[in-house]
């Protein structure tokens, strides 16, 4: 297959002690071609982080299929599971808690190579220091401990630790959200450069921030209550959003854009609990254009808008921005 990451009808449900079930992910399908950078966006509670963690088998799936290249992620064991641990890497939001405080950063980056490859000695040392230097950490940093580094430097170490294994797939889970605003732009620059330096690296970028996704990604998938409600090429989704939820998210983006009419779509109320997903279209309780007798009873179809742009809404074909 020509997919690097293929997720099919993924469900991740967590039973609670009181008998309720959290439908964190409820039928997600998403395909990333080799070298593609795809953003997964949504509010907290949308299930976006659970999708990323399940793809790397850090969270067990309830149902569905996930493939990374030819590897069957949900059924991998033994040698395949070790291959998965090397080929697919994840960067978490908080670099501090991802690093062992008693390990120098040189050691932190070397560890994965020692565990997963046969590289040793000078070759290993050079690969480690080259990777750290490429991430903007010169040699005088390499024998320092995490507490001697800033938040941005620690996140660079985490990125180096992932890249040193030459992964095929990188999942980035809000990699700049825990950093100072002044440092976020630097790390975004590092990630932007990655696309040019490693064009074959496939990236799934999870964020609540649409502007960041627009800056870094080629395609975007918008999640709401465990489902992808809109998906397509970034520029197309930003200029011609078809789902009312995407329109609401975009109208919350502060930078006004030339040529785009001010969008008055506003979200009202809180996101419902994933233990009580509304019937019909799950967004109908907050949707400004919901139609009674349809949206609250009938799940919407997936409507194609051309060029791989799709939206899950009864009226997606009628949405116009101009
Ligand atoms: Fe709104 Fe109805 Fe579309 Fe759902 S299907 S997003 S409730 S208009």
Automatic annotation (TrEMBL):
Its membrane topology: Peripheral membrane protein
One Pfam family, short name: ABC_tran
InterPro entries registered for this protein in UniProt: AAA+_ATPase, ABC_transp_ATP-bind, ABC_transporter-like_ATP-bd, ABC_transporter-like_CS, Oligopep_ABC_C, P-loop_NTPase
PROSITE patterns cross-referenced by the UniProt entry: ABC_TRANSPORTER_1, ABC_TRANSPORTER_2
Superkingdom classification of source: Bacteria
SMART domains on file: AAA (SM00382)
Gene3D superfamilies xrefs: P-loop containing nucleotide triphosphate hydrolases (3.40.50.300)
SUPFAM superfamilies: P-loop containing nucleoside triphosphate hydrolases
GO biological process: peptide transport; transmembrane transport
Ranges of residues in domain ABC transporter: 7-250
Family from the record: Belongs to the ABC transporter superfamily.
Cellular component per GO, a single term: plasma membrane
Subcellular compartments: Cell inner membrane
Record key words, sorted: ATP-binding, Nucleotide-binding, Plasmid, Transport
Protein name per UniProt: Peptide/nickel transport system ATP-binding protein
Gene Ontology MF terms: ATP binding; ATP hydrolysis activity
